[in-house]
Amino acid sequence: xxxxxxxxxxxxxxxxxxxxxxxxxxxxxxxxxxxxxxxxxxxxxxxxxxxxxxxxxxxxxxxxxxxxxxxxxxxxxxxxxxxxxxxxxxxxxxxxxxxxxxxxxxxxxxxxxxxxxxxxxxxxxxxxxxxxxxxxxxxxxxxxxxxxxxxxxxxxxxxxxxxxxxxxxxxxxxxxxxxxxxxxxxxxxxxxxxxxxxxxxxxxxxxxxxxxxxxxxxxxxxxxxxxxxxxxxxxxxxxxxxxxxxxxxxxxxxxxxxxxxxxxxxxxxxxxxxxxxxxxxxxxxxxxxxxxxxxxxxxxxxxxxxxxxxxxxxxxxxxxxxxxxxxxxxxxxxxxxxxxxxxxxxxxxxxxxxxxxxxxxxxxxxxxxxxxxxxxxxxxxxxxxxxxxxxxxxxxxxxxxxxxxxxxxxxxxxxxxxxxxxxxxxxxxxxxxxxxxxxxxxxxxxxxxxxxxxxxxxxxxxxxxxxxxxxxxxxxxxxxxxxxxxxxxxxxxxxxxxxxxxxxxxxxxxxxxxxxxxxxxxxxxxxxxxxxxxxxxxxxxxxxxxxxxxxxxxxxxxxxxxxxxxxxxxxxxxxxxxxxxxxxxxxxxxxxxxxxxxxxxxxxxxxxxxxxxxxxxxxxxxxxxxxxxxxxxxxxxxxxxxxxxxxxxxxxxxxxxxxxxxxxxxxxxxxxxxxxxxxxxxxxxxxxxxxxxxxxxxxxxxxxxxxxxxxxxxxxxxxxxxxxxxxxxxxxxxxxxxxxxxxxxxx
Length: 747
What we know:
nucleus, mainly alpha, 41 helices
C-alpha cells in the first residue's frame, strides 16, 4: 500500500473519530489540520494527497460533518468558531461534491428541523459565494473519456431543479435565493462567469468544453425559465460579442451543443430576448445551416406550426436569415412556403384568424428583406401562390380575412412584379392594416431630413437663387411679403350649391328622371328626393312600386354622387315598406335569378332586412311621413310649428308647480305589427332554392359569402316575426335550412 495514501486514510479516520468526542478544542484542531488537504493552509499537503482526499474521502467526510450537526455540537466552542470551520469545508472544497452532499442532506432530512435550516442557509451561502460557477466550471475541464455520465446527469438535475426541490422541502420557510425568479438570473450570471473562464483558457491555449453548460441552459429553458435565465445571459453576451470573434465562437458552440430535445426552447427564448437580427446573428452564427434541428425550428416550427412570436420576434428571426449570404436561400424558401400556406384554401378555412395574421406579417417581412433579383428568380411560383390566396380570401365570409388578402396582395404584387400593373383594393383601414403596411415599408435612408424639409418649400425657385447662398434670405423675405396669412377667411359654411334643375315633385317624375334623363343634375336631384316623395305619396308609389324597385335595383352610378349607395338603399327600403307584398315578392324572385352580381344579391338581402325591421317597429305609422326631407310642396308653417310649440311647452313646464312627478318619458305607442301579414313574402321564397346551383350563382359552392349573409337575413326575419302567426312554419323552415349547413366547410 502506498504510504502517502495510507496517511490520508488514517488522517480522515482519526478526524471522524474525533468528531464524536465532546472536546471542542480537539475537534477544532483536527479539522484545521485536515484542511491542509484542501490546499487552503500555509502548509498544504502534497498534490497527490490532495487529489486522493478529493477523489476518495471528501464526500464521505462531508456526510460525517452533516451527521454531527446539532445545536449542542456547535456550542462546544464559543462565538461560532466551530460552525465557521465546519462550513468552510463546504465552501472551499470541491464544489461539485459539496453541492451534491448539501442537496442530499436537505432532501434526506425529515420534516422541519435545526439541521434542515442550517443546511439550507449554508446552501444559500454556497450560491452567494459564486460556488455554482465552480460546479459548472469543473465539468468544462473534464475530458470526454474521463467524465462520468452519471455524475453529470445527477449534477444537471440538481442544478436545474434546485428551486423545486428546496420549495418542496422547506415549504413556507424557503429562502429568497431559492425562488425561481431569483435563482435562475443568478444561474445566468454564473454561466457568464464560466464562459469568461473558458475564453481565458482558450486564449491560454488550453482545451475545454461547454457541453455541460449547454445542457444546463437547455434544461432550464425546457422547464420554462427562458425569460429569467436568458434575460440576464443575452444582454451580457450581446456586449461581450460586440468586438470579439472568440466570444462569438464560444456562443456558437454553446448553442450548438444544446441537446436536440431542448433546442426549440433555447432558440425560442433567444429569438424573444435578442433585440434585433444583428444580435441574433452574433449569438447563433450559422447554426441554422449546421443543425437540422435548429433549421426545422427556425424555418418551420416558429413560422408554420406556432404563432406565438410577436412582430419584433418575427423581424429578428427573418432578419437573422437575411443577414448572411449563406442563409438567404433559406429566407427565399421560407417565403415560398409562407405564400403557399397563405394561398391554401384549406388553411384559410381551418386556421384561426390570429395565425393567418401571423403568416401574413411573416410574408411582408420576407418581402422587405429580399432583393429584386431574388424575387425575380421565383416570380412565377410566388405569383401563382399569391393569386390563389387572394381568390380564397376574397371569397371568405369574414371581413378581417378579406382585408388581410387585400393588404398582402397590394404589397406583394408591387414587390414581386414591379413592372406590371399594381393591385389596388378599397378597404377600411384599421389598426391591423396600418401595422401591416408599416411592416411592408423599408427602413428610410439615414439622410438629412431637416435639410430636405427646409428645401421643400422653395423647390420652384430659379437655379440662380438656390446656387447662391446669399440669395436665400432675400427669397425667404420675399415669400413672407407675399404671404396671405394675415387675411381672415370668409365664412362660407352656410353656402349652398346652386342647381340649374329643380327636384321632381312626383314619384312618376322620379322614375322618368332615373330611367331616361340625360341631365345629370336632374338625375341626382330625383335620387335625393325619392325617399321623401315615397313616404308622402304612398298611393302613387303603390302604382309604380315594382317598376321603381326594378329601376333602383339596376341603378348604375352615372356621375360622382356622394353617398349614392345609401340613397339607393334608403329609397328601396321606402318602396318596400310602402308596398311590402308586391315589392318583396319581386325582390325575392330576383335573388335567385340569372345575370345578377353578388353585390346586387346582397343588396336585396339588406333591403329586405331593413324593410322588415321598419314594418315591425311599434308606432311606425305616426312617424313614417317625417322620414324624408321636406319637399317643395310642404307649407312654410309646417317647419315653424314644432319650434314655437316647443317654446310654449317649455314655458308652461317651467312655470307649473308639481307635487309629484311620474315617468318623464312616454312609452312607445302600441299598435299592430305590420310585418305579420307580409312575413311570408319576405321569408319563404329565400329558402326555397338555396340548394340549386345556377350558372353564375352557387350558394353551397364558391358563393359562400352570400350564403352567410342569407343565413343572417333569415335569422333577422325570424326574430322580427317572433310573435306573429306565421312564426311556427318559419321556424321549421329555418331549422331545415340550418340543418343542411351543419357540415359546411365555412361554418
